[in-house]
């Protein structure tokens, strides 16, 4: 029987650095033929664009498949399985498949899908890599006040005070074979070490916790874990009380309705750094979790990529506009439900 194609699931909250880590992996693939399956929340295909724009030799358009139908863990049957079948049926199947889940996805339903009859004999989960935004966790963005929370729980065990963010974060940790504490360049070595130690206590026994800046890890560390995660899902169950008996419950339980996203378009901007400051202000005012996309700067032939995670905004010119391509901005905005869309649109277009 032919060997099963190994697949690595890269999970982690919005903006943790999944795409950055994958990009580094592709740039250092040493001849491995890696196919990517990408799923994004807030549909604009930014991650696919970034990875395609990377110009890495041997990484062709064909090797990147985008799932657009919402959150990967809720569209396993319609979207994910057929995509995997297509990949596996190629004349030369990839050496390795890497799946980037949306920042809001639970990895568990996706990993379980590897047991489906159509694919279970041909592919196996090599490992679940959970990328953590070390800076955001250190700033307490996933649990507003852990001590207060613990005190409340002690007072009333039946209360579930976890925020949707905290729940998702813990479920993503519970499924991991490897936890990457990313963005260590924004932490002191002591902070990074303390965080790694703390996260190890939230993971299953024996899970490796590694530290990284800009997702730069040797490919050999990330790939080849050989966990066959799909065969031991009981150990990786969601630790919260999600009901996975039917899809509707599941969707509800992991709170898609607690997050929302929309796209804002605008014309050319005058200046990249002034616009970055404007975006940072909008993010602060409206408590936006993630904002990313592309813009056109007056007089510049290159396209401006813009990436913001919480308060940190990054801009860079990624590629020239193609002839005839619209010189306008498209930005996807993601936050907890209840964003003031009209005000955000107005502020970003100002
Ligand atoms: N300072 C710093 N920035 C980082 C690091 N890793 C990623 N970033 C930045 O964080 C932002 C988000 O990175 P991505 O790789 O797009 O994160 P992601 O997890 O793929 O994001 P989503 O797909 O939206 O969930 C980008 O602006 C990156 O340049 C890091 O280690 N240090």
Summarize the structure.
The protein is α/β, with parallel strands linked by helices and 350 residues long.
What order do the strands of the largest sheet run in, or round the barrel if closed? 3-2-4-1-5-6-7
Q: Report the order of strands and helices.
A: EHEHEHEHHEHHHEHEHHEHEEEEH
Question: How much of the polypeptide forms β-strand, as a percent range?
Answer: 15-25%
Give the rounded overall mean pLDDT. 84
Largest sheet, in brief, is: 7 strands, parallel
Radius of gyration: 20 Å
In total, how many beta strands? Answer: 12
Listed once per kind, the bound small molecules are:
guanosine-5'-triphosphate
Give the overall shape, derived from the CA principal axes. Answer: globular
Helix content: 25-40%
CATH architecture of the largest domain: 3-Layer(aba) Sandwich
CATH topology type of the largest domain: Rossmann fold
Derived structural class: alpha/beta
Tell me the name of the CATH homologous superfamily of the largest domain.
P-loop containing nucleotide triphosphate hydrolases
> Could you tell me how far the N terminus lies from the C terminus, measured between alpha carbons in angstroms?
61 Å
CATH class of the largest domain: Alpha Beta
* Low confidence ranges: 241-249
